[in-house]
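Protein fold
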Amino acid sequence: MTTERRWLMAGAVLLCTPVFSASAAPVAPSAPALTSQTHSPSPVKTDSSKAHPHHKTVQERLVETEKALALAGNDKDARKLADQAETLRNRSLTGAVRMLLTDSQDALGKHDFQSAEDDLTSAITLQPDQPILRRYRAAIRSAAGDNNGAISDLGVVIQADPGDTTAWGMLAEAERDRHAPDAALRAYKQMMLLDPHAPDADKQLKILQKEKDGQED
């Protein structure tokens, strides 16, 4: 992959996230818990689990969205679900971390890969429990030609969030750049299982299959 293509890919990964884009589809909030009961002359004993419904965590809602994406019936629904999943992945990022992401994006725009990576490393230090940050750093590392570093970060992302289709697609690209066609094809097939309606997926799959088989494009 050329340096310019790497830079464009890293920029796309960052710019298309809800951190930087106002176009991401919002996620409907969970229903509020019941805080009081209506007085009745004839109280009826209720199941406590129904009176106080479980609040779904961000992680639980993310898993549900990822499962829905894998079963989406058409491209429009798939893209909407993919956007919702990205919103959820970024939902818990703090203001300080978001500022670092903005700084990283600015540095990337100047082709200052080291500063962009340093900003992401600082963000990861602040919120090490947010795997999306390692995916962002993987994009920077890949743009700088550090495929091994990118793959290391993506391994952490996928272990924590196995339904992250973008991470699987990035892993396929990084393995391809590392001249590991088998690994690249496996990663891309997994991405397609998680997002069957991924744009241009069939075309890319054929390219990777040819490379694995040792054929020319």
In short: The mean pLDDT is 83.
